[in-house]
Amino acid sequence: MGVTTVLPRTTAARPFSVFGFSSAQAVAFLLLLAAIVLAPFGIYPVFLMKVLCFALFACAFNLLIGFVGLLSFGHAAYFGMGSYVTAWTAKTWGLTPEIAILLGGLTGGLLGCVFGALAIRRQGLYFAMITLALAQMNYFFCLQAPFTGGEDGIQQVPRGNLFGLISLRSDMAMYVVVAVVFLVFFLLIHRVVHSPFGQVLKAIRENEPRATSLGYRTDDYKLIAFVLSTFIAGIAGGTKALVFGIATLTDVNYAMSGEVVLMNLLGGMGTIFGPVIGAGIIQWTENALAGAGAWVTVTQGVIFVACVLMFRRGVVGEIAALIKRPL
Amino acid sequence: MTQISRRTLLAATAAAPLIRPARAQGKPIRIGVMNDQSGPYRDIAGMASVSGVRLAVQEMAGSVGAEVLFADHQNKPDVGAGIARQWFDRDGVDLIMDVNTSSVALAVNQVCKEKDRAYINVGAATTDLTGPQCTPVTVHWSYDTWMLARSTGGAVAQAGGDSWYFLTADYVFGQQLQRDTTGFVTRSGGKVLGASAYPFPGTTDFSSFLISAQASGAKVLGLANAGTDTVNSIKQAVEFGLTRQMKIAALLMYISDVHGLGLETAQGLYMTESFYWDLNDRTRAFSERFKALYPGARPNMDNAGCYAGALHYLKAAKDMGVAAAQASGAAAVARMKAMPTMDDAFGAARIREDGLTLFPTYLFQVKTPAESRGPWDYLKVVVTTPAEQAWKPLAESGCPLVRL
What we know:
A: mainly alpha, two-stranded antiparallel ribbon, globular, B: four-stranded parallel sheet
């Protein structure tokens, strides 16, 4: 799968820049912020929290596929393990939500460290296949390990009290937490991508031998990006587990790995806002077609084909190409 | 083509009802029926159980207004819990019914407790619903693993089946059914030689497990599974010639499974249900009414339980006032427990403090093709267990609501 480039060729001599945002990106970010603040007053908050969790997951994935050009086909492993560990620590040890989520993220990152170190030794399709194989091994571990509860999952996970003080029982309180977690890591990803480190990642994406010849140890850069991405995926999974009070095999299944690829393709990989839009669209269709059972997958397949045939750069990618500015 | 399909797709997604409707006073009761409508349990529950609830709503329409919603939980606990939350928060559902598949049933149980909404579980077997995880809003109808193990397991063990091998669906339902049956087998002097647990859902080939069962030398193959899994494992066991050496004890089987297997394959099997359409005049009358809504099939205990549970809830709501029943699931269920139940499917019964509904259960044997007089004439009663003995004693319930 080729990665299309819609990003700025250069970041030098930018006339307007706040926190690394170009003017078009700043407008888009303000719109996103407004949507996050206003949406819960009109739309069901639990649905919005789900969208935000998946949006964060998709953004983490985008960090790899969009900016390093690595197609990890097993990102559900980190998302799901994050969700299991958060659920387990919150339920069994009674940890407060922020620590449980952090532990979920660290689990994702640690797993990413091991899996990533193995996988980045190969490139392209082989990289994708190794990540998929490792994720499947992780799936069977989760199926058999006693602490995950197998097919039943970890149920009755309490949302707990934030910092031990603020009860998250109400959906609105939880929504604020989820929104803050999302925004923090969204901005972190944006910052990373627009840092000198991010420039090296993009250089690796464009031409890895050339980056090597310039003196960069590309494997190290790729591993750091991989671990960062899996850490954030773990955070997203952990947050989702707390929102729904349940962690199950759905989160570690290969279908979840495929779904996050679809979100990125649809929204526009290599764009900052694309994965958020992609996650929104996918979750919306799933919600709208929930009564149709297996037809959800068929519809997603149709959307995928339509996207590849008609707007290969994804929704946000196409808009960016239209206004000739990166988003 | 692409133009049209894209446009319809967009229209379909845009029309999604994401906006929360304001809930006005004096609304009809909303009953959400959630079960497997596409997976291995679709034939035993699915739309047939939805029809059972619809029939009850129809019969009570004169005194209590109610609407029926339904959804497919795909046998995934997270999907089920998500639907339940959405139903309560957004769609104003007052009562959730059926929820087969024990893992999903327990997840939904927690949401109902948190939101104080009534929950009549019919399709799930786990005794935890009326045991350690019982809640003031939960009622369990039709059957559970203890009752199945006692009836089918106990009968087979007493008839000389003293060594067992289990084929178990690897989640809370299969594990508990195996555990409870093992209890009855060892109590009557038998022993369990082994077990194969297989991943649920998604397993369709049972051959390797059947070979292990055959190699164990056990006399009885205990099937701790349900739905198409049971149908497939029995078919494959017959094809493997397993039935020449071993007896099959299908620990949870419905008349719909017998229909799926055909009498040629299923004849002679023992099974337990708490309802059979051809028991007496009242069950026959009920089945005729059911047929009008769901043509082509006779109700099983799950479908009948959905009818009877919904009917009893609506009667309780009428008794205490619809608004009061909608205001608190716990209050509605408390009223349901206070009133004796009475319906054509199960006759007179009562709901115990822990939420378990008590009525007689029946051990059936599947008729031979020669014995059967027509379509759906499949079962003959072997043993009737009175309500007092059929269910787990209250002392063993483990339900925190029960104070002894």
